[in-house]
Design goal:
It is a single chain. The chain has helices spanning 7-30, 37-50, 124-142, 150-163; strands at 54-55, 61-62, 67-68, 73-77, 80-82, 97-106, 109-118, 167-168, 174-176, 183-187, 205-208, 211-213, 219-221, 228-230, 236-238, 241-246, 249-252. The protein has one domain (7-252): Creatine Amidinohydrolase, CATH 3.90.230. Helices cover 28% and strands 27% of the residues. The strands form five sheets. The chain has a five-stranded antiparallel β-sheet with strand order 10-9-11-16-17. Strands 1, 4, 6 and 7 form a four-stranded antiparallel β-sheet that branches. A three-stranded antiparallel β-sheet has the order 5-14-13, with no helix packed on it.
Amino acid sequence: MIVRKSAEDLEKMRRSGLLVCKVLKELSGMVREGITTMDLERAADRMIRDAGAKPAFKGYYVPAVGATYPFVLCTSVNEEVVHGMPSARRVLKKGDIVSIDTGAALDGFFGDSAVTLPVGEVDEKTRRLLKVTQEALELAIDRARPGNRLFDVCGAVERHVVASGFSVVREYVGHGIGSKLHEEPQIPNYVDRKNENPRLREGMVLAIEPMVNAGRPETRVLADGWTAATRDGSYSAHFEHCVAVTADGPWVLTRQ
């Protein structure tokens, strides 16, 4: 069942969304050569708890893994697509890219957002990968309007990514969000005719998150049981925003 939020609910989600936005902005300023992904984790944990919020990911049980996730952030570097785990041994190097994904619960509602950042200078193909993925997210956001259908959102990502010479990950998808971190509907980054195609209504909130590979779309899970990586070793980018469907158009709750 897709849960539609009231105006009061959306205001609470806005507060959690702005907190996540603030955390990602702070972490983005920290990303440089020589920092570890655990440095980012510690900073995010402090900011979320100082705000009186609860980390959305830490302690979240994932049935497919059969365990709870142990960190505040997912930090996925280079060929890692999503769910990379922070580590004091993972030192960022010039030419890397790092996806930072985090969420927080405040006043009973969740925010969830992700950004992928270059570490110093990266090559032209990698710059294009980041640009195209971010553009795909913006195109999808623009389709989150009452009366459109879910496939309008999914198709916007797929068309732009494929036309740009990259591929969309198929095993991992976006999701509805609200008083739970993951709600209906699932939001693939491609048009999956086997899935339902609900009409978008006011009050729906979508966590739209393109995951785009520079090479082939296939992924594999690493030995830690969590981290998804590209099967061919190509770099992957990931951007995410929570978007409310309103009569006035898309409202990005996780952006200032």
